[in-house]
Amino acid sequence: MKIAFHLFLHFSLLVLVSSYGGNGYDPLENALKIQRSRRTKLNHASKEDITVQETHFPFYVGPQHGLKNFDKISALPGQPAGTDFDQYSGYVTVHPNHGRALFYYLAESPVNSSTNPLVLWLNGGPGCSSFGNGAMMELGPFRVNADGTTLSRNKHAWNNVANVLFLESPAGVGFSYSNTSITNDVQTAKDSYTFLINWLERFPEYKTRDFYMAGESYAGHYVPQLAQLILENNKITNQTVINLKGIALGNAYVDDETANTGMYDYFWTHAIISDEIHKGIIKHCNFSEGATITDACSDYQYQAYVAQSNIFFYDIYTPLCSPFSNSTPSISGFDPCTDNYIQAYLNTPAVQQSLHARPVLWESCNDFINSYWKDMPFTVLPVIQDLMASGISVWIYSGDTDGRVPVTTSRYDINKLQTSVEIPWYPWMHQGEVGGYVVGYQNLTFVTIRGAGHFVPSYQPARALAFFTSFLEGKLPNKQ
Ligand SMILES: *[C@@H]1O[C@H](CO)[C@@H](O)[C@H](O)[C@H]1NC(C)=O
Ligand SMILES: *[C@@H]1O[C@H](CO)[C@@H](O)[C@H](O)[C@H]1NC(C)=O
Ligand SMILES: *[C@@H]1O[C@H](CO)[C@@H](O)[C@H](O)[C@H]1NC(C)=O
Ligand SMILES: *[C@@H]1O[C@H](CO)[C@@H](O)[C@H](O)[C@H]1NC(C)=O
Ligand SMILES: *[C@@H]1O[C@H](CO)[C@@H](O)[C@H](O)[C@H]1NC(C)=O
After folding, report:
1. What is the pTM of this model?
2. Is 402 among the residues known to form the active site?
3. Contact 338/453 with Cβ under 8 angstroms?
4. What is the 170 CA–ligand 1 centroid distance (Å)?
5. Whether residue 454 lies in the annotated active site
6. What range does the domain containing 20 cover?
7. How many angstroms does the Cα of residue 470 sit away from the middle of ligand 2?
8. CA 357 to chain centre
9. Is residue 199 scored above 70 in pLDDT?
């Protein structure tokens, strides 16, 4: 049965397009499956998982003079008239000898750009593009129209309240390139840090600006690890001090045990699997670190996988993108075929040219990076605990219709973080409706976004922007 499960998954991955927003494509599950089987094989004794890291202290800083002007985007093909903010994109070299350069896209604010904070946004995967998914599907200023050639303005874009920097990370993802793919957490954090200190030389006006980081899914690893590296380097180097104020983790994969337990409990409480399957999982599966996944457990996991049937479990109530019929609009109005439009748009030569990108086949996720990821700590909760005690603000947010890294998982994570409630659970209000729920913990804020799936700003753009604004203001979302 276990073999059948693997074959089945393998087969389903082969026949599906690797498009992040597409039904059936599940990069996080793919990476975790490989990672978990490796953990079992190594039986935790071996350190083979942890690749030897190249250290490059002090971090590389290359000449940046004049590059900002070069990176300015005059206009994206098909962008609507009246675009009233500045956009930049291009490459920052992070390792000249290995030909490694990371691609970024900066969307500045239309108003108050010179005082609004700078926010780094990261998508997960691992291996998925922050520009294609984050900017063009979720929170950026534009959405690609169904024609694949024109753009429309996203009213609830996050650059309304911040200057948002989308980074394609690690090298090999999206437009970022390298002669050698980066497939581990540690090097990803180092390269992202090197990117930031170089980028700040290119855009020196941001050096002292309030800086935040946000990301979702596997960025639950990237964001805390990069935050920790920034705080360490702020102390020990004579390089740029990065004015890190806070992080926000959305539907984040931060602990492997809660990722499993929270997901199956969510499936059961959301009527996706039967009582029998749920009981079987509870009885036979031990998901804690070091435990072995038995054949009986595998069998129930397989049953749970099959029981879901054909739903998009990154947003369980959303319609699917169907080539055969006009999709019924989803509750949120989000077009489930969006990812196809993005794929078409970003592979248009004129678009790549306007972005100063190398001509490549752009893909929303890099399957090689995703499948060959090497070091993946079982949990990053200890890193998050350090950040909580460091004084920066730490927010965990969750779209409550995501089945991939569901709200139950985030609640189990918070339980493991062992903090205490300061402001008890209350509904937060937006435009006269409940936007979600909030709990203020010691050094941690938890916010749900009601009716949003994994890609929170795609499904609930107005609520997502309200939450994000609160996060930047350091105030809990409104009670009224
Ligand atoms: C990386 O690839 C580029 C393009 O093929 C080449 O010019 C460069 O020398 C390579 N760098 C290394 C370190 O191999
Ligand atoms: C711009 O900043 C001013 C002063 O802080 C503030 O009153 C105004 O609301 C801001 N406008 C926007 C659109 O953020
Ligand atoms: C930073 O410190 C290193 C090592 O002490 C030194 O070599 C380097 O010149 C310093 N850089 C600057 C910009 O002061
Ligand atoms: C699950 O596995 C862990 C690690 O091997 C072990 O300490 C724990 O007792 C197990 N839990 C149960 C309920 O068997
Ligand atoms: C919160 O931060 C304070 C100050 O750094 C620290 O002493 C305390 O242990 C932290 N508590 C939690 C639960 O993180």
Report:
1. 0.91
2. yes
3. no
4. 18
5. yes
6. 1-480
7. 15
8. 22
9. yes
